[in-house]
Amino acid sequence: MTAAAVLIPLIAAIVAWRLPRRGAGVVALVGTLATFLVATFLAGAPAIQIAWLPALGIGIGLDPAGASSVLILAAALTMIPTVITAGRHVGDRDAPTFLALLLVMQASLNGLFLASDLVLTYVFWEATLIPSLLMLGLFGGERRRGAVTKYLVYAVSGSFLMLASILALRPLSGAESYAFADLLPAARALDPVTQAWLFAGFVAAFAVKLPLFPLHSWLIDFHRQNHPSGVADVAGTLYKVGGFGFFAWAIPLLPLGAQAFQPWLLTLAAVTAVWGGLAATQQKDLKSLMAYMSLSHMGIVGVGVFSLTAAGMTGAMILLAAQMLSTGGLFLLTGMLHRRRGTFELDAFGGLAKSAPALAAVTLLVLFAAIGVPGLSNFPGEFMSLMGGFAASPWLISAAVAGSVVAAGVYGVNTYQRLYQGRAREGTRDLSPLDVLVMAPIVAGILWLGLAPAPQIARIDAATVVALELEVETTSETTGEIPPGGAQSVSAGEDAIPTPDLALGGEP
Amino acid sequence: MGAPVPTEAWVALSAALFAIGAIGVLTRRSAILVFLSVELMLNAANLALVAFARQWAAAGTQVAMSGQTVVFIVLAIAAAEVAVGLGILVTIFRDRVSTDVDTLSEVRL
Amino acid sequence: MITPPDGMALLPLAPLLTLLITASAALLIGVTTGDARNGGALAVLGLLVAALFAGLRLMDAAGGVPVTSFGLQWQVDAPSAGLALTVLIGAFLAVLIGWDALARTGMDRPEYYPLLLLATAGAIVMIHAADFVVLLLGLEILSLAVYALSAWRDGDRQSEEAGLKYFLLGAFASAVLIYGVALVYGATGAFAYTAVAAALGEGPTAPLALLGGVLVLAGLGFKVSFAPFHQWAPDVYTGAPTPVTAFMSVVVKAAAFGALVRVFALAWPQALPELDTILAALVALTLLVGNFGALLQSGVKRMLAYSAVAHAGYLGLAVLAAGQGMLGQQTVAWYLLAYTVMNAGAFAVLSQVMGDDPRGDRIEAWEGLGTRRPGLAIAMTLFLFSLAGLPPLAGFFGKALAVQAALQAGWTALAVLALITAVVAVVYYLRVVWAMWLAKGGEGTPLRSAPANWAIGLAAAGTVALGLFPSVWYGLLEGVRVVIRAGL
Amino acid sequence: MLVFIVLSVVMLIGAIGVVTLRQPVHAALSLVGTLLTLGVAYVQLHAHFLAAIQVIVYAGAIMVLFLFVIMLLNLGDEGPVTPRLAWIRPAAWIVGAVTAAGIAAAVFADPRVLPDAATIAAVFTGSGVEQIADQLFGPYVLSFQLVGVLLLTGIVAAVGLVQRKAVTSASAQGRSVGASGRTPPKAPPMDAGATSAGTRSRSSSATAERGR
Amino acid sequence: MSDPAAWIALVPAIALIGALINGLFGRSFREPFPGVLATAVAASGFVLSLVAFVALQGREQARVGLELWPYLQAGTFELSLGVMVDPLSVLMMLVITGVGTLIHLYSVGYMHADAGYSRYFSFLNLFIAAMSVLVLADSFVLMFVGWEGVGVASFLLIGFWYQTKANADAARKAFIVNRIGDVGFLLAMFLMVATFGTLNIAEVNAAAVGLAFGSGTAALIGLFLLVAAAGKSAQLPLQVWLPDAMAGPTPVSALIHAATMVTAGVYLIARTAPLFSMTPLASAAVAWVGALTALVAALAALGQTDIKKILAYSTISQLGYMFVAVGVGAYWVAIFHVFTHAFFKALLFLGSGSVIHALGGEQDIRRMGGLGAKMKITGTTSLIATLAIAGVPLLSGFFSKDAILAHAFTSLHLDGYGTYGLYGVLLVTAALTAFYMFRWYYGIFGGKSRMDAKAAARVHESPATMTVPLMVLAFFAVFAGYLGLPEFAFPNWIAHWLEPATLGGLTEVPFRHPAAWVEWTLILASIVAAGVGLALGWWIYAARGGAPVRGLAEGRLARLSRSGLGFDAAYRALFIGGAEGTASGVAVLDRDLVDRGLLGLGSALGLFGRLAARLQSGFVRSYAFTMFVGVGVLVILVAWMGVRA
Fold first, then answer.
1. From CA E146, how far away is CA E136, in angstroms rounded?
2. A14-18, A425-429, C94-98 — which is least confidently predicted?
3. What residues of C are in contact with residue D158 (Cβ under 8 Å)?
4. CA dist E533 to D191, E307, E539, Å?
5. Crossing angle (nearest 10°) for helices E493-502 and E87-110
6. Chains D and B touch (3+ CB pairs under 8 A)
7. What's the farthest any 2 CA atoms get from each other in chain D?
8. CB of B32 within 8 A of CB of D31?
9. Do chains D and C touch (3 or more CB pairs under 8 A)?
10. Cα–Cα distance between E179 and E144 in angstroms, integer?
């Protein structure tokens, strides 16, 4: 079952690649539906551990516990409409390749989420890069070359430094293998300085992929230049795994390193959230706007992860899953708009709600989900992320909340207004039955994660708590030089969350 | 005959020969002279080997004579190099009427 | 007459003898018939038989136990057998690559294949050498043959120039190496690795031994193209006929690294720590020069030359580890097979895209290859991805193993540098990939050569297989019988 | 000691001559002088057989080959210094001096006591032919065999390189009437086509074979 | 669900279903059906609220909790969605569904023949759903769901006629200003979690009284909540969105922007009464924000000419009263005023709607007048409402407003924060309220017609679906006040009813209990204030035909008042300009700075490469030189090591 999550899309990709368009579309759809089916049963599936290069402790380990299954499920759900769109709206000649790349992307993403051996993780990390690069490179816009290069340089620079850290983990910690379970106790026992250095390697990769300000510039070009159908952008959205990397690997393995970096990373994440939001309000191009919006979300993910609290980290993961649906949905809608008007310029739209009310309604729903309106998908994650962040650094996160939430309101409503409100210059088609089919999973997912996220959250939370509890142990073992400030963020419970020391006078 | 000259002195002499040979490689422009300089370097090595062979006399015939034996082999190596080197030299000369190594910079372009 | 203590067993020499016999036969047939192809057929046969011997040695459960012969001058063990197999595979691929090109470019003189076989024999000698004298001889056999092959192309000024350049600089480097060997003898009284190691192990590092070691390192550093002894590589790679370049880039590199790692692992393991520091400095310089040099190249062949320099840097990491008793030998051998298949593959594609045009490797020739010859383009993409070290291809594990070995040996900063420079590498490799897939149009018609396509296919299969099943090859190199576990 | 000093001076003068004399012939002769002096040095170092080899094979045979080639190719003065590389000469001398000094310093920093004359005499008896033979056909028998392979390689390589010149110039002459052997032949034109080039090359090499 | 009181939890679900039906299939329904359906939905909500109200009567523990499903979880922090049915929420629900039903009914006629008929009712039901979630929530998170939900509904309804840019802009403004308030809500929640470890309202309240009196944490939470409440309830400094929100259909203004949604802020503070009771600082801030808002809005109302904008400012002003009430700790009073205000303000809006409907969209009171004769029901009911809001004795507004004034005067909670000042401001505002409301009424219904004859001829009374709600509301505008007669002398049902739901016996908020004559004097003062206001209005507009203020009409003061005291302009200059500048700066920086940095790095690397290429000169001798230098350096290194050793 676990391996199927990787193998099914991979096989479908290979088959689809060599088929003509129609056949490729069918195969891809079947493949992605099957993957979704697998994903729904993934939570309880057994883990896999196979030797790969046993002499060096490298193995193939796949473990669907924790956040993995949730993210895979959300990604699989998002992939369904994406594949439909790709099969339908990419040129005849390109469609099979495009579909194949999408499925390869899904396969390697699933692998990335599942991998429980750090070298395998890295393998999937890079494997995911390639289809996204190729999609941009093969099907991107006029200036894709620059975008590709930038993306590549950013991504690879980071990931190779991470490789250094990964490879160093075993020799330095003396663990038996690169299996996560082996590394965990060994790596946590490392001294703080070593942990900090190793953590820095992970930061290089994950901060780029997250992305954190100021390493985000590739993201904007990436989205701007990608295929107008928005399909590749969805894939890119699924691929925002930096936060997951921190959550699943870097922080549990190197808690002391994480603590050393926490103030900086938390600040950068907060800046990212605000920066992305502010920049989004100024965009005149729909795709740039989405890119900055996504950047802002990632800032919030970062805030949650770097809070090093149970709430924040759990929230960040559920937000990651939620934004796959909401941001992914927005990119698909962007593609629909482009097909109707042939442009992404916001100024070219306006008043479409009259001729396309259903399109408007769906857009509004997804947009509201994206800006964190409660009851929709992004809210639980955003709320918990910021809540965790607030516990870690009240004033900083207050500022970040103020900036990002208001900015989200501004760009969210602005976007809707500029697309759908005002006087219509010309009408447009409303949602076609196919479009409805495309958007249905997205809408369902948005409501699902918005109204009843608890089962998914509980699954993630279990992993978080295990990670943080272990951290408490190591902290207490190595006590002495670790300041109490280090231990505070560790706590998962209400008692230990420090009451911010507020020096506000209460007496009249 | 006086006190035997110490090995260090011989090796220093060979080092000087080695360096001069190397300088020749760097400064001579005719390929054949570059090649001659390389021969000089090989001979420097031989001199060192012979000097060390004498030094190792105390360690027995096997150890001492292996040095001289290797000189013999190095000689053969030099001879083989000469064969190939002159072969290349001749072919290139036929094309260029020159063995000036400074003209060998076309590939870079 | 003094009989060597370990006898004169010929079985460990089987691959060498096979090659020598084939070479002689090919020479005879070649000069009598005047047709190079007969020699070629013999060469293929000889290489395969030799590979069979090497492979059998490797598969032997006792392969891990070192076997010496001829008075400690020859040592066969799992890494050396693996390296020999690597060299033979490389030579085989080079023969396939050149099969059609020879006739086309007037290089099909009867001496070609005998020389190629002799060069391979020299490589085998270098790898199995357990004695500096044998190493020197192997090196010279290999070098002289390759000098001649570099200048092989008829009336081609670039080829001749490459040959002479390579020869002059090579002879210079040999002289340095020989002088170094002389100094090592002076310091230890021995030429055999184990004897040298025994002598060195006795006391503190003698300056003389260190000096000898440095000069040996410099001499071998030339062959493996460590900076600053690398400058011949770009020019010679570019100038030499492409099949010869392919041979050089894989066989010479494998042999030289095989020799280097064995010198470091057998002759002065942990005995010359200063030398390790010096090697580390060379490796660092090599990584920088190779990768940044490649970044600027417009010709793909020349870029691959710099890439060869860069890969020498990664291999150097493993050599460093080997000197400290870590798993370096296996790592070097593993990496070299990976490098051999991916690099030979890249040259196989290159030889078809370039055709006979010495300037045919410029980036324009690659533009739009993805539409003109998708098969070639896909294969090249695979090789370049692998060279860049992207998982799960062979190159990734090569790099990962090397870096891990270095980390284990404590060369952390160097490992990090290696990975940082690897980023640069990704850029220049993928530039070719972009040209093939992203650029429209393009010019030139790549040749079609069935043998070269065979080489591409084999190399591609190897690149993928090594990446997917790294432990098979690694297990063999460790001398452990590996059972491939199937199923998920 | 005196002998050593005289030898050193002569040897170094000869060596410097090799790298400085403008006429290739002079340089080669200077090298012959150095090699001969080396032979004397070998005698001093109890390597009588090597001394003989040095004089006969090296200074004799190999150097004659060199001189032959120099004269054959009629190499003259090297001509003016390449301006771009003028800096190399002074730099080379400096680096060379430093290197030699470095090697010498390292050697002197690691002094060894020379065994007494008796020990030396006990080892190096006679001309040394016997001992070397013992080595060559004993522990070094593999190396000895490989020397054979090496020489074979050298011959095959040299023949392969030089012989094709005959071929091409023959074919070139066949095509362009009156072209002299000294004229650098152009590379065969590319448009000649792969097959025809191949056939030509094969047939002409057959011609060369018959000629031999 | 066995407890009938808990059935009220179905209201949001029913309303949501109603919204979905109309939203998805509305366009295939024929005209009255969507309206009827939506009205039925609202009415069923009212019935369920009544059931709950009845069920709660006479219970010892007047609170019913219903846990729905788990929502968030993080370590030991867990949060489930649930419903809390208690007197406060039930009362609010009664108002929401009751007034809501009437307004739905009214809309059936009002929105007749509008292109977006079904869409309108879908949104209206959506609002009911969100608002009932807000009110019924047992946790702040769920309340926030409703809180943003009503914001969304408000956004949709203000921008209902989205093709006019001004409407869409107004909707956007409302949403964004509300978002600022939401930030406060979020931060308050974060601080609550950090402090109490829970977001359940009851648990927070219980824990809050454990804090030290005057604790800084409590004050900060209170201030964050105030930001939230100010955003939703259009209080200073976030009041600017409400006047613009009048761009929506008038029934919407009546329901959302007068009767229900805007009182959510008051509800929020009343819900967290125990917390506020621990922090005089935050309470005082609430009270003073309310008082100043009341005054500022009243001043702004003076100069308005738009029939609905006058009412909008009046709403803001009345909300200010409620804020003073919650600020001083008179939580039941605030809800009481919410209750009475809902009726008369909804009535006023519906009356204006009726007028606008009759005049075909005309909204400027300068072009009205004399309509009382032609629109008898509308005129009469509007008069009742006007008098009620003006504080004429024995009408509902009188009792609630007087209670606020009295409690402001006698507050001990805010002792030291200027309670008499509060009282004074409110008293002045009361007079101003009576004045501008008279102007409003007389401008529309009294005097002579200022319309052209043709338009005047077409004026007609609205259909029954619109007038029936007017009459029902008028009834309540008269009698709702009797639920909360002055405590010192009469039985007061509402205080008794609400007490357990606000402070819940957890703590007490102290008031002075002055002598009865003081209380009577206070009542008299309110009556006088209302009387003065009305009299002045009558004198200026009815007796002198507006002459005394004619000179002022185009003066600076009038313009200031008409512009809402210039808040919009000031904000545009101060914040919007600044924010836009920052944002565009960020956008520009993002493209330039970060990208340039990368380019710089790239060219630095290129330089390195060129250096390497320069060394690759092609000359053998140069290469040999490099090699030899390498050898030399290594040799020197070794020699140095050897000599040193």
1. 9
2. A425-429
3. 148
4. 109, 19, 10
5. 110
6. yes
7. 75
8. no
9. yes
10. 12
Among candidates A91, A72, A77, which has minimal Cα distance to A25? Answer: A91
Higher pLDDT, A479 or C217: C217
Taking the Cβ of residue A172 and every Cβ of chain C, the question of whether any pair is shorter than 8 Å is answered with yes
d(CA A383, CA A387): 6
Q: Say if D210 is an interface residue toward chain C (CB within 8 Å).
A: no
Strand partners, C7: none
Answer whether C179 sits within 8 Å of B45, measured CB to CB.
Answer: yes
At A229, is the secondary structure helix, strand, or coil?
coil
C-alpha closest to that of E342 among E169, E467, E472, E499: E472
SS (H, E, C) E259-319: HCHHHHHHHHHHHCHHHHHCCHHHHHHHHHHHHHHHHHHHHHHHCCCEHHHHHHHHHHHHH
3-class DSSP state for residue A323? helix
The interface pTM score, or ipTM, of the predicted complex is: 0.81
Based on C-alpha coordinates, what's the Rg of chain D?
25
What's the distance, CA C162 to chain centroid?
19
Contact at CB, E638 and C222, closer than 8 angstroms? no
For E632, name the nearest residue in chain B, comparing CA atoms only: B19
Chain D residues lying within 8 Å of C278, measured CB to CB? none
CA dist., res. A292 & res. A276, Å (int) = 5
Mean of pLDDT over chain A? 82
What's the DSSP call for residue E489?
T
How far is A39 from A61, CA to CA, in rounded Å?
17
Is E645 close to D109, i.e. CB distance below 8 A?
yes
Mean pLDDT across the stretch E46-75?
84
Is pLDDT above 50 for A495? no
Q: Mean pLDDT over residues E616-624, rounded?
A: 83
Look at E621 and B29 and tell me if their CB atoms are within 8 Å. yes
SS3 D185: coil
> What is the CA B16 to chain-centroid distance, rounded?
12
Q: Are strands C67-69 and A58-62 parallel, antiparallel or unpaired?
A: unpaired
Helix (H) and strand (E) counts in chain D: 9, 0
Which ranges constitute the DSSP H helices of C105-156?
A: 112-128, 132-150
pLDDT in tens, D51-60: 998 888 888 8
Structure tokens given for B60: 């027995």
Rounded CA-CA distance E594/A225 in Å is 18
E379 token code pair: 């005129």
CB atoms within 10 A of CB E606: 13
In this prediction, residue D188 has a pLDDT band, given cuts at 50, 70 and 90, of very low
> For position A479, what pLDDT does the model report?
38
Q: What is the pLDDT of residues C3-24, one digit of tens each?
A: 555 667 777 888 999 999 999 9
Run of H or E residues at A49 = strand A48-53
Rg value, chain C, Cα: 21
What's the pLDDT tens digit per position in C249-268? 999 999 999 999 989 888 88
Task: Show which subunits contact B, needing at least 3 CB pairs below 8 angstroms.
Answer: C, D, E
Instruction: Tell me the C-alpha distance between E16 and E307, whole Å.
Output: 32
Q: A438-441 contacts: CB < 8 A, separation 24 or more? A: A438/A81, A438/A84, A438/A85, A438/A332, A438/A336, A439/A81, A439/A329, A439/A332, A439/A333, A439/A362, A439/A366, A440/A81, A441/A77, A441/A78, A441/A80, A441/A81
Chains A and E touch (3+ CB pairs under 8 A): yes
Residue whose structure tokens are 């020489």: D151
For residue E411, list its beta bridge partners.
E511
> Smallest Cα–Cα separation from C351: which of C153, C142, C68?
C153
Over range E30-51, report the average pLDDT. 89
Q: How far apart are CA A87 and CA A197, in angstroms?
A: 45
User: Does pTM top 0.90 for this prediction?
Assistant: no
